[in-house]
Amino acid sequence: IANAPQSIKSVAKMLASNKYKKIVVLTGAGVSCNAGIPDFRTPGTGLYDNLQKYNLPFPEAVFDLGFYARNPDPFVQLASELWPGLKHSPTITHSFIALLEQKGMLLRTYTQNIDMLDVLAGVSEERMIECHGHFRTASCTVCSKPFDGEECKRIIVEENRAPSCLSCKGHVKPDIVFFGEGLPDRFHRLVKKDVRDADLLIVMGTSLMVSPVCQIPDMVRRDCPRILFNRELVGTFCRDGVKSRRKSYSNKERDIFHAGDCDESVRLLCSLLDWDEELDELNSS
Ligand code: OAD
Ligand code: ZN
Fold first, then answer.
1. Does the reported pTM lie above 0.90?
2. What residues are labeled active site?
3. Greatest C-alpha distance within the chain
4. Distance CA 89, CA 100 (A)
5. Is 232 left (phi over 0), alpha (psi -120 to 50) or beta?
6. Which ligand neighbours the alpha carbon of 166 most closely?
């Protein structure tokens, strides 16, 4: 612990200061990799590098609304194989978010993931936004009419076909957000206020490549410190005072980047804070 990197020490100092009560957390697929769910864009292991058998014009087509209208089969096949169930357990990073809530420090966690691991870790529905939707309910991609979620699952998983809408015969899909669709109302309802109120932003396990979620780090107030626990530098975060090349709101006074596995970063951070027992308890319950 004594030779913990300065970046983690700085974060520990901030969290120990009792100054931050409205933390906004932003996560992506990287926080679930240690649960055994691959991310999208890591070369080699990411989902988008492993879709050859679907013969797609481009990898993201599997989650594209226009493509689904013409050819729902690749998504149906992928969803039947990867339908989120109860086979994965929350990681240390998910439990850390639940711990922040327990300590009254969490304003909101914005997840781009559809694996429901934040809920399993104990984060309350109120504190969580599933920005890219979820598999629990379904609706028609043409007329938006709701379709029974269980029935959608049965048809996709057992019959391997896209369910048809009962009123317009359009293709039904689970209510996960596809490219070409808007985000859930709850996201739009809360994001503007949350970025104004945030006193600290913690970003973990995301490439910050998909809009509008990737804009959140540039929407928080200019005086809101930003922490990034990720394998790589992403978005407009800056490292060692060097600004990222993208249009940048970064500033070396407020950004802290720690490169590496987010579970390892969180573990180290929690041991500096003497939160490790609480963290382990949450993670094993
Ligand atoms: P990506 O796969 O684009 O990015 C994952 C990020 O996490 C990368 O920067 C990795 O380096 C990093 N990473 C992986 N494992 C990690 C670990 N153990 N610790 C720390 N960092 C790690 O996934 P997302 O950013 O979530 O949307 O992708 C965003 C959206 O693109 C997804 O929600 C999905 C996808 O298309 C839709 O389909 C609408
Ligand atoms: Zn319809």
1. yes
2. 132
3. 64
4. 19
5. beta
6. 2
